[in-house]
Design a protein that fits this description.
It is a single chain. With about 240 residues, this protein is α/β, with parallel strands linked by helices. It folds into two domains: about 1-80 and about 155-238, P-loop containing nucleotide triphosphate hydrolases (Rossmann fold, 3-Layer(aba) Sandwich), CATH 3.40.50.300; about 85-155, no CATH class. It is built from ten helices and ten strands. The strands form two sheets. A six-stranded mixed beta sheet has the order 6-7-8-3-9-10, with helices on both faces. Helix 7 links the parallel strand 7 (about 160) and strand 8. Helix 3 packs parallel to helix 6 (about 140-150).
Length: about 240
């Protein structure tokens, strides 16, 4: 049973046709990755799912509910959290305050907020060490941890991750991917957009290749990792 099913999705930026009828399905418990060149529509797919960009045509079904026209804040309440590209933390708020912003759907339930924060600190001990520090003073890796942690504060069923390794040192990239695996092992389904296609395919269960707003390939991550077309186009092999 699909947790998320996308059918014939069309999304526009003004007159620019960004997504041209894509179909995509994610089963509960999976890590699914979207790979493709810059401008292929990967981030647009995530932004459409999370309600930041309205779909022009098509259907988005999440957990048996039609979310095609649901506003972004309601989509978070329904169980989808989005960790955007570029981190977009609140630089003048502390780490704890940033995390609390991600828990707004919990209202005044202090116990639930504290419990979710504890889970985030277990995943990212560095954030607990920096909990009173302003977000803008964190390193790039710490800011990425904070972005993911903030998205997890709403305790999502589906986590959308947009370029989590972008700009990070290799050792931090390894840590981020290990954490994505741990998040998934804790019961969160993950849709991952990632420039490091090789690393993404190694942790994903399934994958889709996007090219200029179309899905051109899909299958198990292992099959796509072995596919000569993927290896040449996205893994830098001749």
């Amino acid at each position: 049973m699909a947790l998320l099913k996308i059918e014939n999705l069309h999304t526009y930026y003004g007159n620019v046709h960004a997504l041209k009828g894509i179909d995509l399905e994610i089963t509960e418990g999976e890590i699914v990755t979207l790979i493709g060149a810059n401008g292929a529509g990967k981030s647009t797919t995530l932004r459409t799912i999370s309600g930041l960009i309205p779909a022009r045509n098509g259907e988005l079904i999440f957990d048996d509910q039609d979310i095609t026209a649901v506003p972004a804040h309601k989509i978070v309440e329904m169980g989808i959290s989005h960790a955007p590209e570029g981190r977009q933390i609140f630089s003048t708020l502390t780490v704890t305050e940033n995390l609390n912003m991600g828990a707004y759907t919990l209202g005044s339930d202090k116990q639930a907020i504290e419990e979710n924060r504890r889970r985030v600190f277990e995943l990212f001990p560095r954030l607990e060490e920096r909990k009173t520090q302003l977000g803008g003073t964190l390193s790039g890796g710490e800011q990425q941890m904070l972005t993911i942690g903030r998205a997890l504060m709403a305790k999502p069923k589906l986590l959308l991750l947009d370029e989590p390794s972008l700009g990070l040192a290799p050792m931090l990239v390894k840590t981020i991917f290990e954490t994505i695996r741990a998040i998934n092992a804790n019961g969160v389904t993950v849709l991952l957009v990632e420039q490091n296609a090789r690393a993404a395919l190694k942790i994903a269960h399934r994958a889709y290749v996007l090219e200029t707003g179309h899905v051109t390939l899909s299958g198990s991550a292992a099959d796509l990792l072995a596919d000569i077309r993927v290896r040449q186009a996205y893994l830098g092999e001749s």
